[in-house]
Write a structure and sequence with these properties.
Elements (H helix, E strand, L loop, with lengths): L1 H20 L16 E3 L9 E5 L2 E5 L4 E6 L4 E4 L2 H10 L7 E4 L25 H6 L4 E5 L4 H9 L4 E4 L4 H14 L3 H19 L9 E8 L2 E4 L4 H8 L3 E2 L7 E4 L1 H7 L3 E5 L9 H6 L8 H4 L3 E4 L1 H4 L6 H12 L5
Parallel strand pairs: 5-6, 5-7, 7-8, 9-11, 9-13, 13-14
Antiparallel strand pairs: 1-4, 2-3, 3-4, 9-10, 10-12
Length: 332
């Protein structure tokens, strides 16, 4: 029983990493390394990453509280998360002076990302040697990536910026910091304005009355849902719903009895996690214990592309469009 529980929680952690950061579906340590420092701060986290310009580079205090010095003239970038890769391409253009030379095997968007060499998986499968072989000037990651990997890269002298991706505001702050670091501040500002305009457009549309109680499930056996203090909770609200588990922070396992008690009007599920092909919608519809909840009785169980909806990146507007079409279907 203990081994089974450990397996379940390990598997769910990988599912959450894949859903939040996006899922699809992989040298030598003697290369010269750039001069860099990464010193942990006194506290584990900071309110937001900050950037301090200097004549010979820029100093960042990232979301882990680490102080990272990035020399001027950064050119070669490695991304350790799909959301970071999407943001990179969203704010770069033909005049950009940087190049993405490494990305994870989960990075499937935009199409240009597939032309970049893969360094392996996000939480597993990537090796320090493969990353170093790309001879990066800067590595960008998120808090979903194993900190052992981050610390080893920093110990080898590579500047690594780690971003939070838990909230909508994190996306905007990450864009601002990336804009400064990559010398793309104008494009970063334009991207923020674009996303805000897309959000405002969806917010201004009619919503159902009363607002549908909405459950967002990222796994079905056991049932694993998005609660409050998450990016998905914010999207549900913006799309005109009320998160069924708004009183539960983060992501967590819920029981069938809990779902029956809360009576969700809308259930949103993702395509089979980790490309398993699992049909979560059918699992819920075939669960006789859930037959009388509103979402099942009315058939309002929707399967969405988690690469778009669950990945906190530049496609927020598209994610909201998808959720709005599910949650506010009867208001359109």
């Amino acid at each position: 029983m203990q081994n089974r529980s450990l397996f379940i929680f390990s598997a769910l952690f990988l599912v959450i990493c894949a859903c939040i950061c996006g899922c699809t579906g992989t040298g030598s340590t003697n290369n010269p390394v750039p001069t860099a420092t990464a010193t942990p701060a006194a506290t584990a986290t900071t309110a937001a990453p900050t950037a301090t310009p200097a004549a010979d580079g820029i100093t960042i205090v990232d979301d882990t509280g680490a102080t990272v010095f990035i020399p001027a003239g950064v050119e070669r970038i490695v991304s350790l998360a799909p959301s970071i890769t999407e943001l990179y391409f969203a704010m770069n253009d033909e005049n950009s002076t940087t190049k993405l030379v490494g990305r994870t095997s989960y990075d499937n968007y935009p199409e240009e990302a597939l032309k970049v060499d893969s360094i392996g998986g996000m939480t597993t499968g990537s090796s320090i040697e493969t990353i170093i072989s790309k001879n990066p000037d800067l590595i960008m990651s998120t808090t979903m990536v194993d900190m052992n990997t981050i610390n080893q890269l920093r110990a080898n002298g590579y500047p690594v910026i780690v971003f939070e991706i838990n909230k909508l505001e994190d996306i905007f702050e990450n864009i601002r910091v990336m804009g400064k670091v990559l010398n793309e501040e104008k494009n970063a500002d334009a991207l923020i304005k674009k996303i805000n305009a897309e959000i405002a457009d969806v917010e201004s549309r009619p919503h159902e009355t009363p607002l549908p109680k909405t459950m967002y499930a990222v796994a079905a056996d056991p049932m694993y849902v998005a609660g409050s203090e998450t990016y998905l909770d914010e999207l549900i609200t913006l799309a005109g719903g009320v998160n069924t588990y708004a009183d539960t922070p983060g992501y967590g396992i819920v029981t069938t009895e809990s779902i029956i008690e809360r009576q969700p009007d809308v259930i949103i599920v993702i395509k089979g996690p980790m490309d398993s092909g699992l049909n979560m919608r059918e699992q819920i519809l075939n669960n006789k214990e859930l037959a009388d909840i509103p979402a099942v009785k009315t058939g309002r169980i929707y399967t969405v592309d988690d690469d778009i909806v669950s990945r906190p990146g530049p496609r927020v507007g598209q994610a909201l469009e998808i959720l709005y079409s599910c949650i506010s279907e009867n208001a359109q």
